[in-house]
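Readers of this paper often ask what the protein records in our data store actually look like. This encoding replaces a full spatial description with a residue-level series of whole-number codes. For reference, a complete record is included directly beneath this paragraph.
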Amino acid sequence: MSTAGTENPVILGLSNQNGQVICSAKTAGAPGGGGGGGGGGGGGPQKPQINQMKGTINMGNSVSAPTPNAVIRPRDDWKKSLKLPPKDMRMKTSDVTATKGNEFEDYCLKRELLMGIFEMGWEKPSPIQEESIPIALSGRDILARAKNGTGKSGAYLIPLLERIDLKRDCIQALVIVPTRELALQVSQICIQVSKHMGGVKVMATTGGTNLRDDIMRLDETVHVVIATPGRILDLIKKGVAKVNQVQMIVLDEVSLTCFLHSPQTVPLYPRLSKQRQILLYSATFPLSVQKFMTSHLQKPYEINLMEELTLKGVTQYYAYVTERQKVHCLNTLFSRLQINQSIIFCNSSQRVELLAKKISQLGYSCFYIHAKMRQEHRNRVFHDFRNGLCRNLVCTDLFTRGIDIQAVNVVINFDFPKLGETYLHRIGRSGRFGHLGLAINLITYDDRFNLKGIEEQLGTEIKPIPGIIDKSLYVAEYHSESGEEVKP
């Protein structure tokens, strides 16, 4: 088996300020070193396999999509003018391929919106998109459950953008997400998909950024606001964000029980239009969401694609270790696995920083991120890891919801979670959009009951880790489009 280790360890230093390990050696891009980001675990420098995101998101500022470069006449074959990304030839599981055979063009969407959809590389609707897009376009409330990484963001952004009226100078759609990083990600997707629509103004606003900048920006035209709960409530209470003409509200990754039932939220609902449409999307729903449905949703259309909770493309293993053996075990995994990018979860911010330091001492570069870091440093780590500048990321549960980084093929629970919901969202960071992934759990004596409980709760099997892990279980190049193993 080819390894992901470096023959010449890089010289590394840990910065406690920005969560990034500083590489000062020329071998930083070698396998296992992480400086090259994506790529397999073979020899030689690695090229990042994460597509660079076009454009930037300025927190608290809106970004208008660029206008098309060429005018498309009615008789032109408009698809010929599209700048399509390379076709994704990786195998996909039935989580995203078990569709009814619909096309995006079947939904009578604006041509400019279709252009953005295809240029994102979205070829056909996934099952959750097939189920929810036509219902959302009809204006009906939706309560949707679907697995992590199966296209929920597209399921609500496409109908949201279709219904935007550029002639109306007001906030028409509000998307509320649980974390700042997810707000950045959704904003970027929204901007890219709408880039041919000629002036959709998207604003991302989150806590930890300058409130004055948000207030100034809202004096100008904004059509779509993507926000974290605390910041949007603050802007609404101050009368800065006027939501009386909002026609669509999306609650993405509804772990937002605190938002749904907080006393601070109560003043929000009377300010909304009575004709509002509410869409709730998540892989898991707490029971308290039922109370919210009864109070605020009008005969919602319910979608449940969660008969099986875990992703079919994610293979799960556990390694039984003592606490003192965890770092050694992690080092062994780094040397034996063919890691493209990995996310390593710890249960506290302090353990995240300590583990990042240990990993750097072993000769592997890594970033770390947790909620106690300054927002600008979190933004930088998220941006750089997503763009393939590092192979390994150590984090807390800050990164468990919604974050979509296609190059991640290995997730390691350095600390095993106590809740099945947390476990489900953690391992869902790999195997995105039906692709292959590997989840490895380091289990101590104290974790043994949690392991059994989570298996029973999620109806899944976590197997003992074998001596050699078959690369075809988690390495894309060992599979063809048809799912057949490719001979090296």
